[in-house]
Amino acid sequence: THDHPPLCAAHASGVRVLHLFVFDPHWCHKATPLAGYPRMGHRRARFQLDAVLDLSERLEAAGHTLTVRRHVSTEQCFEELCKDFQVQTVHSSHDLCPEELRISRAVRKVLEQTGSGPLELHWMNELHHYEDLPADVRRKGASGFSGYRRTFSERCRVKPPLPRPELQKTKPGARWHRAADNLPMDLQDMLGPMFTTEEQKAASL
Fold first, then answer.
1. What's the DSSP call for residue 204?
2. Considering the entire predicted model, what is its pTM?
């Protein structure tokens, strides 16, 4: 709940915030198309489950609720969300990989088709943002690795952490009747058909 651009932007908007996390079956219950490997191994699943639980507890302590959806795709989740709410803006992180970008495009399409507000994507994992680059570098680049290295070391500064949003002032957040009753109980509950006892043993070593 700190140094999190989408969270800060949502709570600065002046409207009630619905904090949403989707356990999309695309990641939890499906294998990769080429080799048939699980998209999410046990270690990654355990980390995600622990992180979501921690986030839920932090929001609860501040008077808000983490809405969790399970067994629906992200696209379907937003179709239902736009039926039940007048969505003004969706704030989320900016992804780079093809599958994540496809999901972002699907969500944006749902918002447009339902006349809802825009999808605002925020860069989160970079020390430097594109907007932080000097104007001449944004316009014509910096001639390879050495040019960019000098730009970042000599002409750019790492952004300071964002201030923690004052969640107590924006409580209570919105609640959704479609929310799951609880988080996955364990990795087998979370991964479903992708759960394997052999990998569980290896992850426990």
1. T
2. 0.85
